[in-house]
Structures are given as structure tokens and as C-alpha cells.
Amino acid sequence: MNNRGFTLLELMVSIAVLTLVTGALYAASMTLTHAATSQEAKTTTIDNAKTGMLLMIRDIRQGDSASVDWGSLPGPVLAYRAATDLDGNGTAVDIGVELELGPTRTLTRDINDLNGDGVTDTQLVLVEAGQARVITNGLLPDEDANQNDVLDAGEDANGNGVLDHGLWFEQAGTAVRVTLQAEEATMPQGRLVHTSLSENVVPRN
Length: 205
Fold this sequence. Notes:
The chain contains 1 helix and 7 strands. The strands form 2 sheets. It has a 4-stranded antiparallel sheet with strand order 1-2-3-4, with helices on one face. Strands 5-6-7 form a 3-stranded antiparallel sheet. By secondary structure, it is an alpha+beta fold. The protein has one helix spanning 8-61; strands spanning 78-83, 101-109, 123-128, 131-137, 167-172, 175-185, 192-201.
């Protein structure tokens, strides 16, 4: 029976090979982890943007075109009145066949934390009669520091060469063009992932 052990050279070679294999496995593991967190952040931004866009589209379509504050567009706030069954007859038309409109509704960032949840400029809310309802979270920060709708020096925070508003409304014929941009940071890297959606919405009433 050969009881000879490893030589020092063999031991060093074994340790070197083991180190290389461990390093390769660790690198592969980190790559997969980064890919997973990036995908998770991307999914979150897509969900936030889609949720916000769908809720806004549905509500704006119930709006009265004549009540839209077209003069404030383009801008980060949209004000309008929506068809509402005020007299309880089951339809938003009164006995005189006139359209019933509720109080002014405003889609905006919750800058003043109207709903008291501690989330402000990254939250989109629908404000009506002093009450704020959350539409979505994770809004991209507004890069337009001086609100002139022009990409000035120092405003391109994410370096994409475009002035990003996060939330923007503009007139497109008889429609409102709605742009919603969401972002989420990957964990633990902190890299920001963005999603942008735009839609033309026609107030139908």
C-alpha cells in the first residue's frame, strides 16, 4: 500500500484550481443575482407605469372635454371634470337631458402629501374635493428644474439626452397625450431602471 501523501507542489496546485473554480462560481452567482434584481426592478417599473396609465386613461375618458384646463397644457398637472350621476337616477344625465359633472379632478404628483402617507413627489394622485387617491408610485423625478420644458445644462440627471418629466400632459388635437415614467432602483446595486409609457386619451363627454 502506498502511504505517500501530497507533495507541497500538488497541494498548491490543488488549492489554485479550487480557488479558480470557486471564483468562477462566485462570479456566475453574482451575475445571476444582478440579472434577477434588474429584472425585478424592471417588472416593478412596468407594473407601476401600466397601473397608473390604465387608471388615468379610464378616468380621463369619463371627463368632459369642455371642462379640461387646456390652457395649462403642456404641463405636469391635468384638471378636468368627469361625468357623474349627481341626482342618483342611474345615469350622468339629469332630467333636463344635461350632462352632470362632478367636482374638478386633478391628476398630479402628491408634492404636499395630501393623503398623509409620507410619500410625496414620487407618487401620482387623483385629487377631488380635497381628497387624494393614489394612482401609482415610483414616478421618475421631474428633471425640468425651471419648468421651461427645455433641457437646460445640468438638468439631464439620468444622462439619456432627453428632458424627462416623469408625469406630463399635452394637447394632441381633441386628445390629451399622457406620458408616465416610472423608475426603480435595483438592490443592492442601486442602479436605476426606467419605464416610459405614452397614450393619447380623448375625453368622451
